[in-house]
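Support reply, case 0932

Customer input (verbatim):
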Amino acid sequence: MLKSGIPKLSFLIKLYKKRGKMKPFIVMDIVKEAQKYEDVIHLEIGEPDILPSPEIKNTALKAVQENKFFYTESKGLKNLREKIANHYKNFYNVDVNPENIIITTGTSTAFLIAFYFTKTIATPTPGYPCYKNFAELENKKFINIPTSFPDYQINLEKLKSTEFDTLMISSPNNPTGTVINSENLKQICNFCKNNDKLLISDELYHGLVYEKEYTTALKFNKNAIVINGFSKYFCMPGFRIGWIILPDNLVRTAEIIAQNILISAPTISQYAALSAFDYKYLEKTKKEFKKRRDFLYNELKNIFNIAKPDGAFYLWCDISKYSNNSFDFANRLLKVAKVAVTPGIDFGDFNNYIRIAYTKDIKDLEIAVKRIKNFLKI
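Our regenerated output:
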């Protein structure tokens, strides 16, 4: 099932030939539209407003002063890969070989690398819209596995009746905030191992889990591909730094792909990320997002039908009492109430949902709630 060896040139050519079939990432269009209005509260984009650990800025400035502007090796700085490996030991008690880690430009290029090893990708829906677009770029078949309110968990029986070679999971999920707990994750990992399925685990929102117990897929499946990055939990979105962890037999092929589509991740950003693992600071960040989640959920749960999220920083809101056209609803909310949210159609066939990101402080969230209530005449 898994490919190895040197990637063919056709892989890169397909990245360009498939462009016309991609869906727009609607949230970015909403961001652009919102720039036309003053006094907008931006709850549409999944970008932390909290600054990263102060040491990150100091480390980045030091790298600039030392003229560290040159390419790194395609896998990335060795000491950063070692830091990430230590993170897995500290955070999950899982051993990771730094040689199995490749530093990527955000997580986007990590997915492009991972999807090279696939043919048919199955993934729970609702889910991150770019997954399908990445698959489209590489001419891979993409299958949605429906999940449902309130827990949005994967049904193993449904997986058994579906034909695919790769399962793509996301925990915490974007947009629902659902977390796959350790026991369920173990069952999923065992299913993939026992049925010769490649498992790709998107763990970008790890760290931002508020009560539920969880772990990495590598705990139960050493042959999983795990993708993570510094944009969410570490509050470094614009640094564009992520990572991918691969099993031994895929590392060299993935490195060759990285050489072609990356050369290397941004050097200054890699140096900055060396100071990202400030756990004391990160705990404060998590507590702040939890406080925001609790406030916004309690304010909106009687207005929209919402499953309380386990992690990330989103509320997935059923608006069917008010509209069955999420794009129109989001546009009117923006123009009339000056609150920007993401239409549910960005995440699949969910035209009666919107996603609200609690990536603003409590004062802004209080104003946003008042505006939403006035908009809905509540």
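We compared this against your earlier run and they match. Two observations from our side: The radius of gyration is 20 Å. The domain at 23-46+279-375 is CATH 3.90.1150.10 (Aspartate Aminotransferase, domain 1). Please reopen the case if you see a mismatch on your end.
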